Amino acid sequence: MTKILQDDLDSLQAWEQDWLMEFNPSKCKAITFEKKTKPVKAEYRLHDVILTAVTSAKYLRVHLNSKLSWNTR
User: Fold this and answer.
1) What are the pLDDT digits (tens) for 15-36?
2) What is the C-alpha to C-alpha distance for residues 6 and 42, in angstroms, rounded to an integer?
3) In the chain, how long is the greatest CA-to-CA distance?
4) How far apart are CA 34 and CA 40, in angstroms?
5) Which residue, 61, 71, 66, 68, is CA-closest to 29?
6) Cα angle at 55 between 64 and 42, to 5 degrees?
7) Contact criterion met (CB below 8 Å) for 33 and 42
């Protein structure tokens, strides 16, 4: 599964070139959503920069966490 996600990030880089846009890896984060007690550890790269792994993130004013809970604590 991690290979598929990395392939998607690589595809985004090709899309950037087609549309003359660029993602800023320093502003991108990686979060894994799952209920497993031992989550899969993976490093994802964008422009040869490892994305920062986080356990929670705010998206469109909604807080999300890796345990699929709305609780931010």
Assistant:
1) 999 999 999 999 999 988 877 7
2) 10
3) 41
4) 9
5) 66
6) 125
7) no
- Statement: the pTM of the whole predicted model exceeds 0.70: yes
Ramachandran region, residue 60 (left: φ > 0; alpha: ψ -120 to 50; beta: rest): left
User: How many other CB atoms are found less than 10 A from the CB of residue 5?
Assistant: 13
d(CA 21, CA 36): 36
Give the integer Cα–Cα distance in Å for 65 and 34.
9
Q: Residue 5 has which token pair?
A: 């996600």
User: Strands 29-30, 52-53: parallel, antiparallel or unpaired by DSSP?
Assistant: parallel
Model pLDDT for residues 37-73, shown as the tens digit of each residue: 777 788 999 999 999 999 888 888 888 888 877 666 6
